[in-house]
Amino acid sequence: MKKISLLAALLLAYVANAQDVPEKYRPQFHFSPKAHWMNDPNGMLFHNGTYHLFYQYYPEAKIWGPMHWGHATSKDMVHWKEQPIALYPDNLGYIFSGSAVADVNNTSGFGKDGKTPLVAIFTHHNPVLEKQKTGRHEYQSIAYSLDDGVTWTKYSGNPVLPNPGITDFRDPKVRWYEPQKKWIMTLATKDRITFYSSPDLKSWSKESEFGADAGAHGGVWECPDLLPLTHEGKQVWLLIVNINPGGPNKGSAGQYFLGDFDGKTFTAYSKETKWLDWGADNYAAVTFSNTGNRSLLMGWMSNWQYANQVPTDPWRSANTISRELGLKTVGKELYLTSVPARELESIKGEGYSKKNLTVKAPVDLAPKGGNASGLFRLDLKTATAGDFELVLSNKTGNELLIGYDKASNQYYIDRSKSGKIDFEAGFGQKHTAPRLSKDGKIALTLVADVASVELFADGGLTVMTDIFFADTPLSDLTIKSAKGIQVEEVQYHVLKPSIE
Ligand code: FRU
């Protein structure tokens, strides 16, 4: 008996190790560069039928280093094609995070022969000045493209916004403010947001500040975004402020405020923080520009707590799927919602739909014959808001648990037994998020790739994104409920790989 279990253990170890090969944890429908380091998404822009994604990229190693802007393009935010590097570091510094706009009125004067200039607005981070501790090593610069984003020319008058003496002075997100026909820059300035405006993207004047006395301050404020949404016919402004560390489940995370913006000042309805995503792995999330009345958000699917240690090879990090933003009132409180952008449908494969399932002992939710890849989308609706747990697992004994705990009214993702967790002390933990909805039924969507899950609960009121590193794909899926629960409807669809 002993011999058999020893043999079995050896065999399992062998299977697990045999999988320890390059590309083992490669996301199959999330964007990741083919090789080397990536962090924040930058300059996300829709132009002439193409979505552009730029990103913090270090093309020489798998760890953070002198930053470039990598580039990828897509027709649907699901199938991405990696492009040549767009921006290289120069004598003004590394190319840190920022945004891009289509300057359709040619306010910048960069346009030629009727061609719309695309203008990137980014932070130059100067490592020499940083060493000298001048406190003025970050400033804002611009570059433009006259060939729809393929090649970029840096402006000779850089920097366009010099540093006034603020150590963390970065990540400009720029949008056109039509009522006053001017550009608004939302900039992360250490522990607050500073708004600037410009007629031409080249000269900037300070408008106001927000946040020194609002929201979470467990870390430095980074990567903001400001955009209007519509709720019941009324305009509501969304201010996203990423923060690192100080997230609700440790490390990096995104908080948001809702309020009014008049071209000068942002006035929040409440100074309390709300969280965009309660999981550990959605950072630096901002929206695409130039997408009309759709607001589409994408983040970096990692956390500074362990981003440089995750066991992937030969690349490091991926992005979340694209999410469509909306607003929803619960009681007297207004919240942001995010759900998978409909373009994800383009990779929907085989599936099934079942009604009225009684769950007590574990019920198998994987399709007949299994789903070896472990890539799927699950949509589930319960008859009551009671305890249940989804178990994603494999034959090697890894388990990722996703559930709802009624007593604490919390959703959770527990990755403590999900596979490789030992590369960082805090990685293998259970993350929790409050259920905000008061609806008597729970509706959730779960999107699973090889190394990530994205949970959208109650129409996107509570969202959690977590990465994991299972020894083999988590292709089994069961649902259980110690107290028993009735599932009104469940839909399961295999998702097809979309990477190059
Ligand atoms: C956020 C961030 C930004 C900065 C960039 C550097 O993850 O720290 O504030 O611009 O990454 O790579």
Automatic annotation (TrEMBL):
<protein>
    <submittedName>
        <fullName>Fructan beta-fructosidase</fullName>
        <ecNumber>3.2.1.80</ecNumber>
    </submittedName>
</protein>
<dbReference type="Pfam" id="PF00251">
    <property type="entry name" value="Glyco_hydro_32N"/>
</dbReference>
<dbReference type="InterPro" id="IPR013148">
    <property type="entry name" value="Glyco_hydro_32_N"/>
</dbReference>
<dbReference type="InterPro" id="IPR013189">
    <property type="entry name" value="Glyco_hydro_32_C"/>
</dbReference>
<comment type="similarity">
    <text>Belongs to the glycosyl hydrolase 32 family.</text>
</comment>
<dbReference type="InterPro" id="IPR023296">
    <property type="entry name" value="Glyco_hydro_beta-prop_sf"/>
</dbReference>
<keyword id="KW-0732">Signal</keyword>
<dbReference type="Pfam" id="PF08244">
    <property type="entry name" value="Glyco_hydro_32C"/>
</dbReference>
<dbReference type="GO" id="GO:0051669">
    <property type="term" value="F:fructan beta-fructosidase activity"/>
</dbReference>
<dbReference type="InterPro" id="IPR013320">
    <property type="entry name" value="ConA-like_dom_sf"/>
</dbReference>
<dbReference type="InterPro" id="IPR018053">
    <property type="entry name" value="Glyco_hydro_32_AS"/>
</dbReference>
<feature type="signal peptide">
    <location>
        <begin position="1"/>
        <end position="18"/>
    </location>
</feature>
<feature type="domain" description="Glycosyl hydrolase family 32 N-terminal">
    <location>
        <begin position="30"/>
        <end position="336"/>
    </location>
</feature>
<keyword id="KW-0326">Glycosidase</keyword>
<dbReference type="InterPro" id="IPR001362">
    <property type="entry name" value="Glyco_hydro_32"/>
</dbReference>
<keyword id="KW-0378">Hydrolase</keyword>
<feature type="domain" description="Glycosyl hydrolase family 32 C-terminal">
    <location>
        <begin position="343"/>
        <end position="491"/>
    </location>
</feature>
